């Protein structure tokens, strides 16, 4: 039995839930894990955490890689080294550059966190986020999906980030290629439940 720990409002939990829907995987979801239990499973005390018997895995992109490989879904995570590297490149970009850019403005304007005031730093965060989303738009001008012409794990992780960008208040450029791609993502199983579900 696969068990997933983490609140369903977390962008990183949602990417795993979306993938599980696409893989038609039965997963027992613990939406409000006990803090002590969570610390025992993950030294970072962060979600998501996946457990399968004695096997425990954390870091959302690693969980997505594991589940796609476990299911033999070479379309989502190719075996061929260069094709796989292209998918993982965009997954890593999402986890590092893109997530770093949006943190301040998202925490200020969506979460209302006291440590992130809605000030010039929030505007600078949004400007950097917009710049990186324009990079994604340029990539999508060349391909139907992020890493090429088929849907992959790169689309899953960046689809969630794009939903967050769309729902965060502030001035944003029109990115026609991102918009068209986001509409294509709607065809994927689990999109309505775990991506475009009213949660940023």
Automatic annotation (TrEMBL):
SUPFAM superfamilies: GST C-terminal domain-like, Thioredoxin-like. Residues 80-200 form the GST C-terminal domain. Pfam families: GST_C (PF00043), GST_N_3 (PF13417). Signal peptide: none annotated. Residues 1-75 form the GST N-terminal domain. PANTHER family: DISULFIDE-BOND OXIDOREDUCTASE YFCG, GLUTATHIONE S-TRANSFERASE-RELATED. This is Glutathione S-transferase. It comes from Stenotrophomonas cyclobalanopsidis.
């Amino acid at each position: 039995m696969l068990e997933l720990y983490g609140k369903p409002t977390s962008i990183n939990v949602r990417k795993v839930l979306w993938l599980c829907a696409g893989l038609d995987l039965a997963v027992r979801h613990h939406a409000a894990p006990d803090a002590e239990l969570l610390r025992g499973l993950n030294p970072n005390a962060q979600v998501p955490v996946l457990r399968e018997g004695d096997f425990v895995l954390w870091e959302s992109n690693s969980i997505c890689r594991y589940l796609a490989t476990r299911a033999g879904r070479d379309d989502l995570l190719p075996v061929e080294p260069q094709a796989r590297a292209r998918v993982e490149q965009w997954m890593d970009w999402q986890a590092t550059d893109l997530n770093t850019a949006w943190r301040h403005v998202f925490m200020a304007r969506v979460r209302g966190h006291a440590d992130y005031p809605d000030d010039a730093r929030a505007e600078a965060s949004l400007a950097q986020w917009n710049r990186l989303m324009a990079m994604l738009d340029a990539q999508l001008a060349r391909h139907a999906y992020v890493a090429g012409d088929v849907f992959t794990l790169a689309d899953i992780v960046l689809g969630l980030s794009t939903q967050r960008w769309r729902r965060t208040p502030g001035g944003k450029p029109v990115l026609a290629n991102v918009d068209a791609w986001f509409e294509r993502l709607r065809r994927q199983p689990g999109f309505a439940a775990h991506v475009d579900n009213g949660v940023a």
